[in-house]
């Protein structure tokens, strides 16, 4: 069972798309490829669970290594644990939904689906990497597809948003690269062996003056990807100008690349520095949560609303990672998955509305539920998940983060936790207001009475995502069992550095 | 037969002289095919194994790394010749063009294989003077003459400075062979002064800031094949020589030249990228972009280690392919339509999708985007630079990664996202140009995944 299958399938799909001429065949190939990928992801998860039940221990399973650039000790090494698997499942789900939602694309179909599949390849490669250079390779791979997707198929001020997104993400990746290269050399000087491998680096202990700048560089760099305040400015424009599938991918998956990196690379490999300096990121995360929530309230455009809401919700992820407790880590991973699915559903619903009504301004819409009950319901479900209604995944993940954050005593941490909790009220305000304006009530614009409800592809995409949300919301134990041991592995690095519990 | 590279080139020059006497280029197509076949044979013969050794009491040396570097440059020569097919088919001075080009190449090879400073100087001069004539090849165009004059005058001035540095070096050491200097050089005022002048001379040839002022005008005025040669072969060869000079002769000076390189690198990258932002002419844009690329190579050189040498050689190969691809596309478009302004490229993807794609791939490689080879080239340079702890330099390199991405994305945006009412018409596709562009593009995409290549270069990079 080789993990490279997860990279091979999107690659073959992408190449097949390039060779085929007819638009309908292209769409079919893309859909088949992503569904096969989802199937493989599910199968690998069960395989992994069985291996764990059989008692096979080890930080990561299903590992494989290929030498890539021997003089620099760069390897193509892959491996998964529970956290990576949940992210891979998330990616597979969102990609299938995104491809389904984009079924009606007319313009430059081949290039569009090629770029989407290429994007997903970058994400899969990132999540299975255990070599830092390889991880960086897949992180950077996604920059140009994002730029082209927003610039060519986007709307609004797409050229500006695309350029801003590309440049800011490049700056973030430059910071990440400086950090991981410094780590490579530190591993040679202090650890005895020059390596890029995460497992080998995790065994080494670096002195503080080396750990601290690297930790700050890497966390900030990955934080740019997660739209951490104050590097979040690419997100509202980027998400809103992008075409629907790209927005779903950007907000649903691409932002989670940052969160995963913050957890797996910055916090796991440099625990002492994290212990000392994570307070900076707690502050930034809290600002992102509050500011994001208030900024969302001011938005009239539904897409901008969801974009700022994503900034706020990903603030929860960073808060969870920076709190450095086991439960908070778990909550951060769950929030990554939950928010990923939720925001994909939200963007899908908004995209469907926009395709029909040609407006995204909440006050121009009205009574969508009457005219398009399915889309309206999808919108409402996404909204309720966002504000953390029990029964949906948002509640489970946010609760876990709050409990985990509360575990850290100390005025500073308690204040941050309380502020984060308080933001839920603001979330409720903007969600209910948006729903009230756009979905409930009577139909304000007579034109809208002609609109049709969701077509088969949109229904399929929405049902897939809603299933994910409800599954996590009502049966969270399967995901907790999956990631529990791995968050303990990360947390164990902090046991020696006494976290007051 | 250690002199094999040089002998083959000289043979081809003689064949060309004989052909000129017989006016053989009347039949254009057969001549063009013939000369390209000759250059292909030159490249293939170069790939045969060659031993190491010295000749002429150490004036000429050949090592494994030098053979690899000469092969890389031979490949560049072949590809440049292929991409200039259309230009040369229309120009009646074909044979002179090739004679000048190959003479410059001979100078390049002599410079690379030198074991003595005088031979280095001779090779440098021999590689530059034909280029001034080549820069002026569009005899009827005014800016071509301007390019020629600027090149020869600044070139003469810079070689004067280099020669002054060499004479000071002779005064400091008493001998001019590489081994002797490496053994006997000590840090005193005279040798540091010599070193400063020598770096100045080399800096001009590599168009490092602040010695870059000739670059934009010469690149703009020269015919595109000549610009191609200047930016790729001329620059690449001087980079190779510069590395070997710094690492072997001036090895004892490392603390001194480390800071010099840092400053030159920061200036080159930043000035190159900032000026490129304002350019409207695609040739000037690529000129400034190549200044920034050389700045980047200096980051790798600042690593002062084996990995610095390896990554610089690797990068020059990738840079060669990327630049030849870009100039090849520009050349094809210019030869068909006469347009070289960036705004004329609007909507190129809709009218000429393959040219737009090839251009985009080469730009991504220059920017350092995976999966193109440029990603690995640039990042290995950064890794080498990090090894020596030059943190300020690396911070500027990181900033410049972003700036250069903006520059290249600007062109990509013009081709793919913008559209114009009058797009460029369908550009003729010439078989030779197509072959060259195909080789370059395939190289750019797969070199990063050809695992043995980097290892091979690393094995050969021996710092004596």
Topology at a glance:
The complex is a heterodimer of chains A (501) and B (464).
Chain A: H1 5-19, H2 23-53, E1 61-69, E2 74-80, H3 82-101, H4 109-128, H5 132-141, H6 143-153, H7 158-191, H8 198-203, H9 208-225, H10 234-241, H11 244-269, H12 271-297, H13 302-323, H14 326-357, H15 368-371, H16 373-386, H17 393-406, H18 411-438, H19 456-474, H20 477-495
Antiparallel strand pairs in A: 1-2
Helix pairs in contact in A: 1-2, 1-4, 2-3, 2-4, 3-4, 3-11, 3-14, 3-19, 3-20, 4-5, 4-6, 4-11, 5-7, 6-7, 7-9, 7-10, 9-11, 9-12, 10-11, 10-13, 11-13, 11-14, 12-13, 12-18, 13-14, 13-17, 13-18, 14-16, 14-17, 14-19, 14-20, 16-18, 16-19, 17-19
Chain B: H1 4-21, H2 28-47, E1 53-55, E2 60-62, H3 64-83, H4 85-90, H5 94-112, H6 117-135, H7 142-173, H8 178-184, H9 189-205, H10 215-221, H11 224-248, H12 254-276, H13 282-301, H14 306-337, H15 348-351, H16 353-367, H17 373-387, H18 391-416, H19 431-446, H20 451-460
Antiparallel strand pairs in B: 1-2
Helix pairs in contact in B: 1-2, 1-5, 2-3, 3-11, 3-14, 3-19, 5-6, 5-11, 6-7, 6-11, 7-9, 7-10, 10-13, 11-13, 11-14, 12-13, 12-18, 13-14, 13-17, 13-18, 14-16, 14-17, 14-19, 14-20, 16-17, 16-18, 16-19
